[in-house]
Amino acid sequence: MALEPGVLDSSDNFVNPDCMAKYIEEALPPPPDPELGKHDRRQFLIAISTGIINYLKAHDHDSFSVRVTVSGTGYPGTLDIS
Predict the structure, then answer these.
(1) Tens digits of per-residue pLDDT, 30-76?
(2) Is 63 contained in some domain?
(3) Three-state SS for 1?
(4) Does pTM surpass 0.70?
């Protein structure tokens, strides 16, 4: 699945409910008045999401490193995925 920062429709709702900006918005405490500044707030979250995605694309060779350690019978050992 490709990472998507987000896009707003004409009612300032996220077009794709699975976009990064929506997840960031849901992680924040709700504003006192959700409609006040909704467009600017969501545009800001889209900008943050775009920056994060662009950073990860620019650093795809070193953005993530996963280490899995398996113990017990069968295939004990460590696998590093970068």
Answers:
(1) 999 999 999 999 999 999 999 999 998 898 777 777 777 877 767 76
(2) yes
(3) coil
(4) yes
Q: Are strands 77-81 and 66-70 parallel, antiparallel or unpaired?
A: antiparallel
Structure tokens at 25: 């918005």
- Biggest CA-to-CA distance, the chain: 59
- Identify whether 31 is part of a domain: yes
Helix (H) or strand (E) holding 67, with range, is: strand 66-70
User: In the structure encoding, which two tokens stand for residue 29, read together?
Assistant: 């405490």
How many domains is the chain built from?
1
71, HSE (Cβ side, Cα atoms, 13 Å): 0
| 41 falls within a domain | yes
* Residue 79 structure tokens: 């696998």
Contact 37, 31 (CB under 8 A): yes
* Spatial contact of 54 and 48, defined as CB atoms under 8 Å apart: no
Domain hosting residue 67, numbered range: 20-81
